[in-house]
Amino acid sequence: MPVTIVLGSQWGDEGKGKVVDALAEGADYVVRYQGGANAGHTIRLPDERQYVLHLIPSGIFHSNCICVIGNGVVIDPVALRTEIQMVEEAGFTVKGRLFISHNAHLIMPYHRQLDKASEARLASGTNGQSVGTTGRGIGPAYEDKFSRKGIRIVDLLDRASLREKLRHNVAEKNELLKKFYASDELCDVDQIIRDYEVFDEEMDPYITDTALMLCKAVGEGKNILLEGAQAALLDIDFGTYPFVTSSNPTAGGACTGSGIPPTAITDVVAVVKAYATRVGNGPFPTELLDETGERLRARGREYGATTGRPRRCGWLDAVAVRYTSMINGVRSIALTKLDVLSGESEIKLCTKYERTSDGKILDHFTTDLRALAGIRPIYESYEGWSADALDGISRRADLPPVVERYLSAIEKEVGAPLGLISLGAGRNESIVEEDFLAARSLA
Ligand code: IMP
Q1: Tell me, what's the pLDDT at 427?
Q2: What is the rounded average pLDDT of the residues 281-293?
Q3: Per-residue model confidence (pLDDT) at position 153
Q4: Is the Cβ atom of 98 under 6 angstroms away from ligand 1?
Q5: Is there a single domain that holds both residue 201 and residue 254?
Q6: DSSP 180
Q7: CB 240 less than 6 A from any atom of ligand 1
Q8: Residue 432: which domain range?
Q9: Which is it for the CA torsion 286, 295, 249, 227, positive or negative?
Q10: Cis before 2? omega within 30
Q11: What are phi and psi of 422, to 5 degrees?
């Protein structure tokens, strides 16, 4: 039975929430496997109500779905509490449908403080360039995880040892904040202990061994979706380091972040936006710093769902998406926001790069920042289509030939077929291929 990874193939904000929500209709489980409340997955319900999920998987608005926050996620209990309330107020049951890994790490107030302090320090440094993080404490929480100082949900059970660990961590972080970052905003260990004891009681009904739960579900042949947050080019190993997030949104992260074995994965779907965006700093070869970029931002409402920051916009970079498809073993593409391109007279697709130093043509992406700084994109140009050309279309065969030419070029350049083409934010505004649905037992 299908165990499908759905992941972002660019720099995030591709519209993963909508795609996962669409596929969740036939899924038994939807699992978040990495990241934290830095994500912002937007879902529009049929009655036009729109919600942004940061931690809860995007299957929560389908009552048939069990939602799992896996061990690879870093959980901010304040954000989780707010989100559970939001979903309940929207009229959906959360208890008995949401499960959280006992091995997931917790984001602490000092992680958020350190994230902001580190960014401020980088911004005022010699090259003045911060990463442009979301400020949600993600990097510092993963730092603690990998230096084996992190506090996991399971640690909340043993209050005496929790207190000891927290005292140690807070002393260390306060020292860092005071001495290295010259901050006078320090953490109060007793306050943190009081707050997290309350969270422990609130979260208790949701906590379980989710790896065990998911392996059992795999054994029972359940239909499982693994929902990536951020995206492949923000991956700590495969992204444009150091301008990346601190986890593995790529396919491997889906296994380590959930406990589902690699041999159980049956499919990988890449969510690709019909153009490109990036929020935060770092290389972006096809960025448009002109009126076209501004039009895409305005029409695509390209402002961060988590931070509200304006996103940088540009043309679709097929060299980059070819690379992320390769490292993720992508079998099909969910193309999103095609409607945002409607009304453009010309649409460009980057298919190769040219190395400016010697004119050499490159057809492979590189994560070497110096090499990326020395290339220029080579575009293929496509005729655009009118502002209303996509209105009311629900079958690919009915798309105007000019649109089809752009879509076929994406398939050819990336090397994977389009299974879903999203033409708007609503659940029904998509073209979905029969075999794409059949692969997830939705047909
Ligand atoms: P962090 O994940 O908050 O540490 O941020 C690291 C980088 O990832 C920054 O460039 C952020 O803008 C970017 N980032 C993190 N989460 C998202 C997301 O959900 N969408 C797009 N970019 C993100």
Answers
A1: 85
A2: 97
A3: 95
A4: no
A5: no
A6: I
A7: no
A8: 3-98+209-438
A9: negative
A10: no
A11: -95, 130
How many structural domains comprise the chain? 2
**Quick check: is 443 in a domain?**
no
Ligand 1, atom 5: closest residue by C-alpha: 133
Is 161 part of any domain?
yes
SS3 content of the chain, % helix, strand, coil (to 5): 35, 20, 40
Q: CA–CA separation, 329 vs 323, rounded Å?
A: 10
Cβ of residue 42 lying under 6 Å from some atom of ligand 1: no
Nearest CA to 136 out of 107, 172, 177 is that of 107
Work out which ligand 1 atom sits closest to the CA atom of 307: 12
The residues that are catalytic are: 13, 41
Rounded to an integer, what is the distance from CA 166 to the centroid of its chain? 30
**Are the C-beta atoms of residues 308 and 279 closer than 8 Å to each other?**
no
Q: Do 84 and 129 belong to one domain?
A: no
- The CA 244 to ligand 1 mean position distance, Å, reads 7
Same structural domain, 342 and 218: yes
Q: What is the pLDDT of residue 114?
A: 97
132 Cβ closer than 6 Å to some ligand 1 atom = yes
DSSP letters spanning 86-130? HHHHTT---TTTEEEETTPEEP-HHHHHHHHHHHHHHHTSSS---
Residue 351: per-residue pLDDT: 98
Query: Is residue 96 scored above 70 in pLDDT?
Result: yes
Distance from C-alpha of 69 to C-alpha of 53, rounded to nearest angstrom: 12
Give yes or no for residue 234 CB within 6 A of ligand 1. Answer: yes
In one-letter notation, the amino acid at residue 284 is F
Q: What is the DSSP letter of 184?
A: -
- What would the mean pLDDT of 405-410 be, rounded to a whole number? 98
What token pair was written down for 224? Answer: 């499982």
In the Cβ-directed half-sphere of 361, how many Cα atoms lie within 13 Å?
5
CA of 138 to the centre of ligand 1 (A): 9
Q: What are 334-365's pLDDT values in tens digits?
A: 999 999 999 999 999 999 999 999 999 999 99
CA distances in angstroms from 377 to 284, 351, 360, listed in the order given: 10, 8, 12
Do the strands 361-362 and 346-355 form a parallel or antiparallel pair, or are they unpaired? antiparallel
Instruction: State whether 56 and 121 are in the same domain.
Output: no
DSSP 112: H
Q: Which two tokens stand for residue 239?
A: 């992204």
Q: Which helix (H) or strand (E) holds 98?
A: strand 98-101
Whether the pTM exceeds 0.90: the reply is yes
Question: Which DSSP state fits 303?
Answer: B
Provide the CATH number for the domain around residue 338: 3.40.440.10
| 131 touches 280 (CB < 8 A) | yes
Q: Is the pLDDT of residue 443 over 80?
A: no
Q: Is the pLDDT of residue 440 over 80?
A: no
